[in-house]
Design a protein that fits this description.
The protein has 432 residues and is an alpha+beta fold. It has one domain: LCP protein (Aminopeptidase, 3-Layer(aba) Sandwich), CATH 3.40.630.190. The strands form 6 sheets. It has a 7-stranded mixed beta sheet with strand order 11-6-1-2-3-12-18, sandwiched between helices. Helix 1 crosses helix 4 and helix 4 packs across helix 5. The longest helix is centred in the middle third of the chain and has 21 residues.
Length: 432
């Protein structure tokens, strides 16, 4: 396979500069967040009926979301669309702290920040899934929040998004994202960075593509030659951690690299009969329960069953990973602020349940390159347009399918970067 940069309408977005991340593990949660999203929304419910005692752990740690109530579940697919917020915090768990001596030592070792924030939007029929990642250094207002102990935090006019958890916990992060986007947060879950090792091991590893070799001996110890690699455990964590080993060495370049991992994880779960393997699902369920603090309205296995059923039949083209659009903060070149005009286009398209067409680059700051290659068969893809004619097809004079599809699609501004699960990207390493 010879990776080549995709040409055409995709354009390089403006660089945000060399954004620094105080904690080098801050982006590890991307894979864990998406893993949990897939498990919660696509698989864990299948084993929920037979493992009720396993899920009782969820209820004991559940968190109330401000303004949300737990609706009684029912058997069958959840009606309508929903939003699931997944956050990853940098808590230094004793079992994993030795992997990160720089983060888990010193005065702030006991602190906890929401370093990863992903809003998973699942639409009503036709079902579409969009995962929006919000930069940890996004500067924005944080509203007054009610903490778990009943006390209230003060509103903040401009703070980094990853401070929200410290002000008011999971509910405060949900309230902050809801205020920014205008989206109601139906469900939420907090996950810890130790689970990146456990979830990757439980799924049996994820195969990634490296276009140019990755060599990062100082910061992560990662050394990968060009080609395909199946990563799990600590090595997967090193891949997700590396910033200096890909693109221009920036934090946003690293995020693009991690989107490749997320996309390939989704394809593995959907394409390799993972959802029909009870043993694998049980392992994933156990791992999830041990690494998730859910909102109270999510702490019910029947709700998880309903969420799982909504994912059936979603095509790879309609599973999209994007970064929330930003500008460089004029007050601090190492921070970013919302690009609200571009974001409005994205969330209006989601509200109207339009198919998203990405016109920007797949990568920010060169973290990955797009490759032209034959895609594996999508089990949920539409029928082959060259197949024999359907006797029930529309009569002459009715709108062609292409025109209907175009009317149902929205081109996103080029400042919104990302990829869908049907696309293939490869890491753009520094050793090419």
């Amino acid at each position: 396979m010879s990776p080549t940069t995709r040409s055409g309408r995709r354009q390089t977005v403006a660089r945000h500069g060399q954004l620094r991340s105080p904690h080098p593990v801050s982006q590890f949660f991307k894979i864990l967040a998406v893993s949990v999203a897939v498990v919660l929304v696509a698989g864990i419910g299948v084993v929920g009926y037979n493992t009720w005692s396993l899920f009782s752990t969820l209820s004991s740690n559940a968190v109330e979301l401000e303004g949300q109530t737990a609706a009684p579940p029912s058997i069958g697919e959840l009606e309508g669309g929903f939003n699931l917020l997944l956050i990853g915090t940098d808590a230094c768990e004793e079992k994993y702290a030795h992997y990160f001596p720089g983060r888990c030592s010193g005065a702030d070792a006991d602190g906890e920040l929401n370093d990863v924030n992903i809003l998973v939007h699942v639409s009503d029929e036709p079902r579409r899934v969009t995962a929006v990642s919000f930069p940890r250094d996004l500067m924005l207002p944080i509203p007054s929040c009610t903490r778990e102990d009943g006390s209230t935090s003060s509103a903040m006019s401009k703070q980094p998004l990853n401070d929200a958890y410290g002000y008011g916990g999971l509910s405060c992060v949900a309230k902050t994202i809801s205020q920014l986007t205008g989206e109601n947060i139906d469900y939420a879950a907090k996950i810890t960075w130790g689970g990146v090792i456990e979830v990757t091991n439980a799924i049996g590893g994820v195969e990634v593509c490296v276009a140019n070799g990755i060599y990062d001996p100082i910061y992560t110890g990662l050394d990968l030659a060009p080609g395909m690699h199946t990563l799990q455990g600590v090595e997967a964590l090193e891949f997700l951690r590396t910033r200096h080993g890909v693109g221009d060495g920036s934090d946003l370049g690293r995020i693009s690299n991690q989107q490749q991992y997320m996309s390939r994880l989704v394809k593995k779960i959907v394409s390799e009969d993972t959802l029909s393997d009870v043993g694998t699902l049980y392992s994933l369920a156990t791992t999830t329960v041990n690494n998730v603090t859910p909102s109270s309205n999510l702490a019910n296995p029947l709700i998880m069953v309903q969420l799982a059923l909504t994912m059936k039949g979603v095509s790879f083209e309609d599973i999209v990973f994007v970064q929330y659009p930003t500008y460089t903060d004029p007050d601090n070149p190492n921070k970013v602020v919302p690009n609200r005009s571009a974001a409005d286009v994205l969330f209006e398209a989601l509200a109207l349940n339009k198919q998203l067409v990405l016109t920007g680059d797949v990568a920010v700051n060169g973290g990955v390159v797009a490759v032209e290659t034959e895609q594996p068969a999508d089990p949920n893809a539409p029928a082959d347009p060259n197949a024999p004619a359907d006797p029930n097809a529309p009569a002459d004079g009715e709108a062609p399918a292409q025109e209907e599809a175009a009317a149902d699609a929205v081109e996103l501004p080029s400042s919104i970067t990302g990829q869908n699960a049907a696309q293939e990207t490869c890491s753009n390493g520094n050793a090419g």
